[in-house]
Amino acid sequence: MNQLPGTTRASRRAEKAAPSGRLGQLRPRHFGVIIGVLLGAGAMLMVATLNDVADTQVPMLSTLASAPVPENQRPLTQRTPPPAAAGTCLTWKRPDAADANAVDCAKPHLFEQAGPVQLASYAPGAALPDNNQFRDLVNKHCTPQVTNYLGGKYDPDGAFRSGALKPSAKSWKEGDRTLRCGIQRFSRSGALYPITGKVAGQDQADIRPPGACLGIDGRFIGDPVDCSLPHAVESVGWVDLGEKFSKYPSVKDQDDYLQAQCAKLASNFAGGDNVVGSKKLSVMWDNLIPESWNAGTRKVACNLAAQLADRSGFAPITGSVKGPVQVGANAAPPAQAQVPPGAPAPGSGQAVNAEDDADSAAPPPALPPPGEAPELPKLPGAEDLPKKEDLPKKEDLDKLKDPLGELGKAADGAGGR
């Protein structure tokens, strides 16, 4: 079977650094194995041959091995696929998930199953859908499945994504039409981050502790890195909109509140009101969409970032705002993935080892193609807001390697207080 995780985030923002005031900011999409599709939703696609390993040589067991061999120690071709039942949590070491096995959901895992879906419209002998078709199938079938599994409390812009394990080519040919829908923690590069505990009992807000940095991939946000390395954003904390609003607030109401609150967090974290601006950094934040609010999400991330002079994306930042900071004038080079898409993220404690990798010759999954950039809106606000005609146009953004999101609103770290 092959894996397909889900929806992309469409609300991340970053702003241009400037002396003061509210400025336009970039809203980049999440990349890696997250693929933009229907209405800003997406699907991550990776191979997960749970019951089909190509060109595998099964090692001979010793004649002394008379005791039953644990399932997770069997050669991949001899393993029984884990149950597809809703609530079953899976983990694996290989990027193709061929070694997936069920684990206690209280322990770190990579995938929480929401239940199987049968693709009954594909008759026996039908060709295996291509990646684009499977993306549509995942968004059509698995996002609703995950939403139902979570009792209607699924945040499509949160820290988790809906996805699926799809049939392998061999099992599809043999008549398997099952998608295993489920949930996992998204990654921009395609590396997977472990989840501990069932998602239904967790805060789905996409937030990080103060001082955490997200790397930079060209002009876009990358995976978590140490802040001493080039990065796109540094977290200064988060704001709980539930402390201010009893019902869903409009984007304008969110911005009016978040501007001062995020600026205050930034100043406190940096060590002074003028520190952020003096280091050519600016404050950025997200906005909650109604679907996020209805799922119970209330927390909004506040970050520090800098924008390239041509407003085409994030400028690389080296060093935490608490110390010396260098802001690059040119776009960073594309990030080099540390692990193949679908593999556990570095430092997750679930890395692939040579012995596991030797059990199969299954190919790694392909990276998804770029998605579309949405229309760039005109922004209300202070006099120093960029005009719409000065902002990047959609047709220019489409020429880039990766898609950008909309320009939003933000407060400069030195102003707006």
Automatic annotation (TrEMBL):
Q: Which Pfam family would be a valid example here?
A: Septum_form
Q: Which residues cross the membrane?
A: 31-50
Keyword Transmembrane helix applies: yes
* Signal sequence annotation: none
Q: Where is the composition biased (Basic and acidic residues)?
A: 384-404
Q: What domain of life?
A: Bacteria
Task: Show the ranges annotated as biased composition (Low complexity).
Answer: 331-352
Where is the Septum formation-related domain positioned along the sequence?
A: 86-302
What are the entry keywords? Membrane, Transmembrane, Transmembrane helix
Region feature Disordered, mapped onto this chain? 1-23, 331-417
Ranges of Pro residues composition bias in the record: 362-372
Task: Quote the protein name from its UniProt record.
Answer: Septum formation-related domain-containing protein
Which organism was this protein described from?
Pseudonocardia eucalypti
